[in-house]
């Protein structure tokens, strides 16, 4: 069973093996800037949402200019629907998303046939910096337009971190930690959505993972009996994954067998893409019902990184990105982007969890192109 395999992975008696790659953007429907996929599984269908770079220049968009598109696969990623459906275009909201919508999470509530999507967003002229925006769709599938929340951006930069980091003994600085991003809806418990997100301190270059809960994506709770009111993961948690690790950024979470399992990216220089740094993913878990603070002793931290670059190069910035769990019935998968030298190409590796000891991750040889 899936819960047993995940426990065995922690004890060294299960492993991931590559079973293929996910190439969802068949030409002429894709472009090289389709990145950052996240997944929802409903029944036998896999849905992938990802950022899609808009090539036409836009006034006031000097950084990213991206939309979110969505596709479906009926055969575990072997084939994907094309052309993709456009979920959200920049400028859909009155404020918050004038330039970019990317790197998010989508949750389906079958009782109401509602899809909720929360993403990183950036307004024109980078007004307000990175924020979080919310969109929803009432339908049985997400293959179509989402409606922008009139309150967008539903989280402004430093809004949540200023609360989480306030007070003595915290991992982070309440004034300097900001850029709530890469949101992940980790569970829905009763009426509450639990959402994790990264934070970045531009002065120290340290990064953190936090958590808050909400019923409507407007009112956010950061301090309650089931929340830590502190970072859940901090630089101290990733030192065995990467020498000099400066913290965690994007994460992906699943719940199985009484535990929350988090797959977390961990750079050793900065959360911004930087030459010459190690960029790995590590594994952590905590008991269900708790989202412990980083130094509580309740997180079990793997002693070595789970995912590493197959073709490490000091000139390849962010060579390993967007590792995501996929849980389909009793099957557990990981998908991640493994970039070649100078980011000349990318393999979206699809790994599956199998019983048995051996190397924790077994991948297909990486061939230059």
Report on this model:
4% of the residues lie in helices and 41% in strands. It has a 5-stranded mixed β-sheet. The protein has a 4-stranded antiparallel β-sheet with strand order 2-3-4-5, with no helix packed on it. A 4-stranded antiparallel β-sheet has the order 6-7-8-9, with no helix packed on it. With 369 residues, it is mainly β. The protein has 2 domains: 1-24 and 156-363, Tachylectin-2, Chain A, CATH 2.115.10; 31-154, Tachylectin-2, Chain A. The protein has helices spanning 2-11, 161-164, and strands at residues 14-21, 35-42, 45-53, 66-73, 85-88, 100-109, 114-122, 131-138, 147-148, 177-189, 192-201, 207-214, 251-256, 259-267, 279-287, 300-301, 320-328, 331-339, 346-355, 361-362. The protein has 2 helices and 20 strands. The longest helix has 10 residues, at 2-11. It starts with a helix and ends in a 7-residue tail after the last strand.
Outline:
The chain is mainly beta and 369 residues long.
List its traits:
single chain, 369 residues, mainly beta, Tachylectin-2, Chain A, 2 domains, five-stranded mixed beta sheet, four-stranded antiparallel beta sheet
């Amino acid at each position: 069973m899936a819960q047993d395999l995940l426990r065995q992975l922690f004890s060294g008696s299960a492993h991931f093996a590559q079973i293929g790659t996910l190439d969802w953007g068949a030409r002429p429907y894709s472009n090289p800037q389709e990145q950052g996929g996240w997944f929802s599984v409903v029944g036998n269908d896999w849905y992938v949402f990802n950022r899609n770079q808009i090539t036409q220049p836009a006034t006031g968009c000097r950084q990213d200019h991206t939309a979110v598109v969505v596709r479906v696969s009926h055969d575990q990623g072997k084939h994907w629907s094309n052309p993709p459906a456009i979920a959200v275009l920049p400028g859909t909201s009155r404020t918050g998303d004038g330039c970019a919508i990317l790197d998010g999470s989508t949750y389906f509530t079958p009782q109401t046939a509602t899809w909720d999507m929360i993403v990183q967003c950036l307004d024109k002229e980078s007004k307000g910096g990175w924020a979080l925006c919310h969109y929803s769709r009432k339908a049985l599938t997400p293959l179509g337009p989402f409606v922008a929340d009139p309150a967008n951006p539903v989280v402004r930069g430093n809004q949540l971190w200023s609360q989480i980091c306030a007070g003595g003994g915290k991992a982070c600085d309440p004034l300097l930690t900001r850029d709530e991003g890469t949101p992940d809806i980790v569970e829905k418990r009763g009426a509450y959505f639990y959402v994790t997100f990264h934070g970045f301190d531009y002065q120290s270059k340290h990064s953190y993972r936090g958590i808050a809960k909400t019923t409507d994506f407007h009112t956010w709770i950061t301090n309650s009996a089931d929340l830590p009111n502190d970072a859940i993961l901090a630089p101290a948690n990733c030192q065995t994954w990467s020498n000099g690790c400066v913290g965690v950024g994007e994460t992906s979470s699943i719940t199985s067998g009484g535990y929350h399992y988090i797959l977390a990216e961990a750079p050793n220089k900065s959360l911004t893409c930087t030459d010459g740094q190690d960029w790995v993913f590590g594994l952590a878990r905590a008991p269900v019902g708790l989202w412990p603070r980083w130094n509580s002793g309740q997180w079990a931290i793997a002693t070595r990184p789970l995912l590493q670059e197959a073709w490490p190069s000091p000139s390849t910035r962010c060579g390993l990105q967007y590792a995501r769990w996929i849980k389909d019935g009793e099957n557990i998968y990981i998908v991640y982007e493994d970039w070649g030298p100078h980011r000349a190409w990318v393999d979206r590796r699809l790994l599956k969890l199998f019983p048995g000891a051996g190397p924790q991750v077994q991948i297909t040889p990486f061939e230059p192109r």
